[in-house]
From TrEMBL:
The chain crosses the membrane at residues 335-353. It comes from Sporanaerobacter acetigenes DSM 13106. Keywords: ATP-binding, Kinase, Membrane, Nucleotide-binding, Transferase, Transmembrane, Transmembrane helix. InterPro entries: Put_SteA-like, SteA-like_C, TPK_catalytic_sf. The keyword ATP-binding applies. It comes from the Bacteria. GO terms for molecular function: ATP binding; kinase activity; thiamine diphosphokinase activity. This is Uncharacterized membrane-anchored protein. Residues 320-370 form the SteA-like C-terminal domain.
Amino acid sequence: MYLKGKVKKDKRTKNLIKRLKPGDIALISHKDLDEIAANSLVESKIKCIINTEKTISGRYPNQGPSILVEAGVPIFEVCDTDLFESIKEGETIEISDDAIIKDGEVICKCELLDSKKIEYLLGIGYENFEKELDRFIENTLEYAKKEKGLVTGKVPIPKVKTKMNNRHVLVVVRGKDYKRDLETVQAYIHEVHPVLIGVDGGGDALLEFGYIPDMVIGDMDSISDRCLKMSKEIVVHAYTNGEAPGLERVEKLGLNAVIFPSPGTSEDIALLLAYANNADLIVAVGTHNNMIDFLEKGRNGMASTFLVRLKVGSKLVDAKGVNKLYKSHLKLRHVIGLGIAALIPIIVITMMFPPMKELMQLIKIRLKIMFGV
């Protein structure tokens, strides 16, 4: 295999995706590449990726590599972590079989991760799944003891300007299948006009669909400046000690923000905030709610999510995967039915029009003469 292209590099894949252009070669350092990152890389129409980490380590069956290979995006792995220093952003490199070449010289060896190897590593991942599950459960129970204040009322809820009382609230997280699910609930958004909350990159997801977020919540590490400026209210997720790293970025843009110190994830506090402000119904799109989601997110347990969902469950509707309910295609009988339904009022109106009555009577007489009736 031979490939040539300009390199874009970043050790944080979600930051790199913003700069990628079609035909680029993505240089990443992403262990156990997750589905969200893989889908974003595919959408960027890159030529290939070079990963200085194990794209699939076998710790659990992450599906990111399979998505890339199925989309025709080659994955090359290298053991040399110094490759990031050897190649500058925007430089052109070549990949020839198992070698990475710059300026005519081989600078590093690489290995193509093909479908057979991915299948083999996924098998190991499935074998290790039970061990990971045991560790995950233990961590979840351990953190649950520390984070129980989320449901007992010990975590103070900050005051916000956005009015949610007796309204529906749509919480959007840029998780798996978020685009398809958000597309599916568009009719609901237009009809009900819920309060729109974007969790970090979920704010940009709303903008993609033409909606301006009423509020964005998060640590501000994966949301665009454009979205921050357009959002009506900003809530920065802070550590329990009050430290809020994301606040500096908001202030540099000359914007104001509400600070919400809390354990757990940003999507958890978004649900909690909506519940505390007496939302009538909370609809969640793209949220993380299972073990694989959390392993891909790099979180050891889901204590806060379990506790928060336990509290807000009576008002929560999880729209994740709702797009799969609407996969049926328009069938011929439906088209015929619609056509007949549309013709009925036309025929009735036509028959009521005097000249048409006379014409139909003449046609009737002509038919009687022709058939001797």
